[in-house]
Amino acid sequence: MRRILTAALLGAASLAMPLAAQPAGNRPLEIREIGSLHVGGRVAEITGLPEQEIVFSPGAPPLRVNPNGHFQVEQMYAQYVRLASPRARWPLILAHGGGLSGVTYETTPDGRPGWQMAFLRAGHDVYVTDAMERGRSGWARFPQILAGEPVFRSMGEGWGLFRVGPADGWNLEASQRRAFPETRFPVAAWNQFMMQAVPRWVTTDRQVQAAYDALVQRICPCVMLVHSQGGNFGFTAALNAPGLVKAVIAVEPSGAPPATADAAPLREVPHLVVWGDYMSDNPFWQRIRGNIERWQGQIRAAGGVAETLDMPAEGVRGNSHMIMMDDNSDDVAARIQAWMERQGLMR
User: Fold this and answer.
1) Do the beta carbons of residue 270 and residue 309 sit within 8 Å?
2) Is CB count within 10 Å lower at the N or C end of the chain?
3) In a 3-state reduction of DSSP, which class is residue 265?
4) Is there a cis peptide before residue 221, judged by omega within 30 degrees of 0?
5) What does residue 26 show for φ and ψ, rounded to 5 degrees?
6) No. of helices (H) and no. of strands (E), the chain
7) Residue 17 forms beta bridges with which residues?
8) Which pLDDT value is given to residue 19?
9) What are phi and psi of 110, to 5 degrees?
């Protein structure tokens, strides 16, 4: 009993320790609210499908199910954490890439705190999103509602696509995999990372964009930090609501608005694009980067700010496409945070 009481007293003393006496990275967060919401979507009707007899649980009697009717579809989920005293002027929306979900930002595959925690500690209210048809947003019957069928990422596809190693370096046997010598991705946790993979569609950009636009209308003014496929959704959300989206940070975005898009509304919306390593010999990523640089040029030509954080150019080698999971993810987050400070996005 004495040991238990002593431990309890020590714990209480630790909690009572003045914040100034604790290392900054270990200070407890003062949270005002944790919650979630769904936005966007529509009601769809399905007709003409045959009834089915289904046993939902072992030992339960069969039940005839009519798959026809009205269904809530195309909504998007977001989880928020709001601080008691945020330093940021506006909340930060974190949007993930293709075949992924908001888990991208929560915890790295090797168990380190993710960018959700990094930006909370930097003073932001943070919204982590699951795009329409991903994660907790759920998906609808296909092809009746979602055109086409889902795409599933194999364990080896991302090895080369995400520039962890050469495309032919993937092997089912972990000991036989070849990563780039300087890679910063935690390669021992690759299988753990692939547990995050979820089905995605390539026919739903319109619906995904509509859901992000609905989120902007619901919670903004805000800053958007987007990744990969989420890049174009962030760029377009800013175009659609330049008075509400106060800045866009695009981490290795894979798409951008067309050359015919008018960037003039973005004169007061600063943009930052972040790139990792191993692009020089990768034609796929070179083509993507050229498209993004074209869009940055359009923003600058319209009088706006469109800057680039190129990690190799900064003298930092080895970053993969999944920069927020690399072993220097905190350093990259700090550089992004410094940019936000310079843009006047903090109090």
Assistant:
1) no
2) N
3) helix
4) yes
5) -105, 0
6) 8, 10
7) none
8) 35
9) -95, 15
| Alpha carbons 103 and 97: distance in angstroms, whole number | 11
Which H or E element spans position 130? strand 126-130
Q: What is the mean pLDDT of residues 22-45?
A: 87
Q: Which domains does the chain have, with CATH numbers?
A: 84-342 (3.40.50.1820)
Handedness of CA 337, 343, 346, 347 (dihedral sign): positive
- What pLDDT digit, counting tens, does each position of 301-329 carry? 999 999 999 999 999 999 999 999 999 99
Its pTM stands at 0.90
Q: What does the chain come to in residues?
A: 347
What CA–CA distance (Å, rounded) separates 282 from 117?
32
Q: How far is CA 220 from CA 68, 94, 232, 243, 322, in A?
A: 37, 13, 18, 9, 26
Burial 118-148 (b: 16+ CB within 10 A, else e): bbbbbbbbbbbbbbbbbbebbbbebebbbee
Query: What is the predicted pLDDT for the residue at 291?
Result: 97
Q: Are 136 and 130 in contact (CB under 8 A)?
A: yes
Residue 27 confidence (pLDDT):
80
Lowest-confidence pick of 34-38, 139-143, 239-243: 139-143
What pLDDT score does 25 carry?
A: 60
Q: Phi/psi at 127 (nearest 5 deg)? A: -110, 120
Q: Which two tokens stand for residue 166?
A: 């050469």
What residue type is assigned to position 187 of the chain? Answer: V
- What is the rounded CA–CA span in Å between residue 271 and residue 235? 9
Task: For residues 72-94, give the mean pLDDT.
Answer: 97
Say whether pLDDT at 9 is over 50. Answer: no
Model confidence at 8, pLDDT cuts 50, 70, 90, reads very low
Write out the two tokens for 221: 């003014």
